[in-house]
Amino acid sequence: MAVADEQIVALAGTARDDVDRKRFLKAALSVGTGMLVSGHHGAPAADDVNDLKTALSGPTVHYRRMEQAVSSHQLAPSVEGHLALARSIVDQRLRTSTGFAALAEIAGLAAWLAADRGDQASARRRYTEAVQHAKRAHHPLLVSYMTASLGHFTVESGDPRRGVVLFDRAHTQLDASAPDSARAWLASLRAVAYAELGDRTAAYASLRTAETLTSRQRGEPAWPWVFTFDEAKASRYHAAAFARLGDTRAATTAFHAAQPALISPKPRALIVLDHARVLVRTGQIAHGCALATEALQIGRDYGSERIIAGVRAFRAELPSRAADIRALDESLTAFYEEETW
After folding, report:
1. Nearest alpha-carbon partner for 67 in 18, 124, 27, 133
2. Which of 46, 129, 187, 328 is the one with CA 20 to 30 A from 81?
3. Which class does domain 15-263 fall in?
4. 225: three-class secondary structure by DSSP
């Protein structure tokens, strides 16, 4: 997970959303279709199948919760181990749509953690794996979700043009039953990608689409889009798009609107960095550096190379020497001088 995965994650943003995700996940896995292919262990009984479904999906939900409280470096080995075990279980005893859907979820989380700790190659492999598992699950919403999550990762990796291609693909994978929350999230991600490309017309068009869908909210949230993509959550992405477009007034308004959704530390740090850039453009260098220092502390506390790299990039955009930058420089120097993980 986008998206965004965002994706997926990280996308839900609150403990309530995690509970909703668990409920929808259990429901989705309990009604999955597909023939069980017996391996060398033989075909399991119905109770065994249900137990396997719970065993595969349950830990993923808890790992997602822990991701908000511990370093990705600490959590990644457990998730990777769970993914390896899940692959073996699905291959031998649960080659069904539900089994592959659970694998997609685990691979998406592994991808998110790899990206957060700065391992781009592993993140790309895991996102691609998540998409392939989702396809074998024959679940259009899940395929779209994982494709969009890969697209979001691609944009963050510096290739927004390829990200737009993936977002378009994710959009075509949605069927008529897709909730507006799914389409609104995709439109928001596309707006950020277009803003990175400097395509103002396309970016603003995507923002208008996202605003319309967010206000309308037709269709019940459905797994994997179990969260309500409300105005506060949408504002996170809109603020990022406006910041990249240099629209400081709109960006500032969106930053304030996004505050209720910025509960989780890592997403908050990333949007704080975008806000810092807007402040610098308006001459508020000291305030911008203070926010960047706040983001750096979160990156250090949670072992997020994604955030730390963002702070370094922010500092590189500033003048080489200025009184307002001294505190940020001292914090960056201290980071390099200490063992952070």
Report:
1. 18
2. 46
3. mainly alpha
4. strand
Length of the chain: 341
Q: Tens digits of per-residue pLDDT, 115-138? A: 999 999 999 999 999 999 999 999
In single-letter form, the type of residue at position 321 comes to: R
Residue boundaries of the structural domains of the chain: 15-263, 264-341
- What is the rounded CA–CA span in Å between residue 8 and residue 175? 19
Structure tokens, 299: 């990156």
- Looking from the CA of 306 toward its CB, the CA atoms found within 13 Å total 25
Bridge partners (DSSP) listed for residue 124: none
Distance CA 193, CA 207 (A): 11
Residues 6+ apart with CB under 8 A from 274: 239, 240, 243, 244, 251, 255
- Hey, what long-range contacts does 316-323 have (CB within 8 A, 24 or more apart)? 317/277, 317/280, 318/280, 318/285, 318/289, 322/285
Q: Which 8-state DSSP code applies to residue 96? A: S
- 35-89, pLDDT tens digit by residue? 222 233 344 445 566 677 778 888 998 998 888 888 999 999 999 999 999 999 9
Rounded alpha-carbon distances, angstroms, from residue 124 to 58, 233, 324: 24, 25, 38
Q: What is the residue whose two structure tokens read 């750096």?
A: 296
Kindly report the pTM of this predicted structure.
0.82
| Helix, coil or strand: residue 1 | coil
Instruction: Give dist(CA 283, CA 63) in Å, integer.
Output: 41
pLDDT, tens digit, 9 for 90 and up, residues 6-32: 443 333 344 444 444 444 444 444 433
